[in-house]
Amino acid sequence: MRLQEIFREALDLPELQLTDNFSMADCAAWDSVATVQIVLATEAAFNMRVPTEKVATLHCAGDILELLP
Amino acid sequence: MSAVISALHYCVPAERLTQAELTARFGAGPVQSIAKMSGILERRVAPPGVTAADLAYGAARGLLAARAVDAATIDLLIFASQTPDFQIPATACVLQHRLGLRMDCAAFDLNQGCSAYPYALAVADGLITSGVAKRALVLNADTVSHVIHPQDRSLLALHGDGAAATLLEPAVEENTGLRGFALGSDGSGAPYICMPASGARQPRSEVTRREKSDEAGNVRTDEHLGMNGPAVFHFSVSRMPDIIRGALQKWGLTVEDLDLVLLHQANRMMVDLIYKSLKIAEGKRFYFMETVGNLAGASVAVVLAEAWRQGRLKPGSLTLLVAFGNGLSWGLALHRWPSELPPPVSAPVDYAAE
């Protein structure tokens, strides 16, 4: 749920129902700026560090989900 | 003994790339989104035919004229750029002749990206302290706008073009000048900022000229600069604070000892996150990107020059310069200003062809 809130805020999509395969290709608002916002908010919310090499290849919600503690 | 920065000047093109022009090309939403994060609202961009070497020449001529420096006293010229006039020969040699420097002046290029300023200062400092050179002119210049595809909004919205000229001499006063360096690199991140077909590894061909779009709609070819923005941003905000803390610890300093901390002017949010992580007080921060853009290898030299022009350097104060970028690479330089700080070079900064 916290990850869904992060995506809703970063993409300004309050009704978004996040799924694992929700990707950049599905959402015009998901640009590189939004990716940065999502990663930084995830790190803060879950008190974790996402490896930069994972940030480089991040394309869908599942890519972040699998990194959560 | 160390080298001290005795004069600094910069030069930017008069031409501007505005938000209105970007909005007309890409639409308001994406342009506003980038500006909200970057804090960059206008960029100085060199017109076709004006190169990084031209801007460097402008900065150097302005500095030498303003300080009445005899060109014959310069015995080291470093041109640090990733957008040189030629692959062969070194652009520094061309500039040696163009600036009228003497023939026993060492002149060479330094190929480094946004972290070029501390690297160039370290090389000049080493050659001065070892007695190889007495008076160095370090030129940092880039025209990155020339290697960005016109439909790549992610990079066009960030980058400007510019150059800086720094004059270095042996420090007369004890414990002043360049007091320390920390240089590093992580080549595992080389692909994150790369112009693939720009050298021997991938020769230019019909294939490298093919346009392709990324998921956000940015267009480029392998002959243009490409950047994985999220990866570079993440590297900068997650690694640079630790690198800075480590360097300060090595030097026996804390952030409290610093009077001014100048960071590579890549992006306002990035710079603020690093400042915040290090708990740098507001009064020790300085920004200069909003009206010029990210000036790549000239960025940190230009922000230092502008801080000097705006009266932010004080006699005896300690300034930390922090640069980071492609490679990936990073560099820190620590400089203590002399008790008799020279006035800034106040000559015009707009480029004017001779």
Describe the structure.
- The complex is a heterodimer of chains A (about 70) and B (about 350).
- Chain A is an all-alpha fold and about 70 residues long.
- Chain A has a single domain, classed as ACP-like (Non-ribosomal Peptide Synthetase Peptidyl Carrier Protein, Chain A).
- Helices cover about 50% and strands about 0% of the residues of chain A.
- Chain A contains four helices and no strands.
- Chain A has helices at about 1-10, 30-45, 50-55, 60-65.
- In chain A, helix 1 (about 1-10) runs antiparallel to helix 2 (about 30-45).
- The longest helix of chain A is centred in the middle third of the chain and has 15 residues, at about 30-45.
- The two termini of chain A are about 15 Å apart.
- The mean pLDDT of chain A is about 90.
- With about 350 residues, chain B is of the alpha+beta class.
- Chain B has a single domain (about 1-354), classed as Thiolase/Chalcone synthase (Peroxisomal Thiolase, Chain A, domain 1, 3-Layer(aba) Sandwich), CATH 3.40.47.10.
- Chain B is about 30% helix and about 20% strand.
- Chain B is built from nine helices and 15 strands.
- In chain B, the strands form five sheets. Chain B has a five-stranded mixed sheet, sandwiched between helices. In chain B, strands 8-15-14-13 form a four-stranded mixed sheet, sandwiched between helices. A two-stranded antiparallel ribbon of chain B has the order 2-3.
- In chain B, a hairpin with a 5-residue loop joins strand 10 and strand 11.
- Chain B is globular, with a radius of gyration of 19 Å.
- Classes of the chains: A mainly alpha (about 70), B alpha+beta (about 350).
- The interface of A and B includes residues 34, 40 and 58 of A.
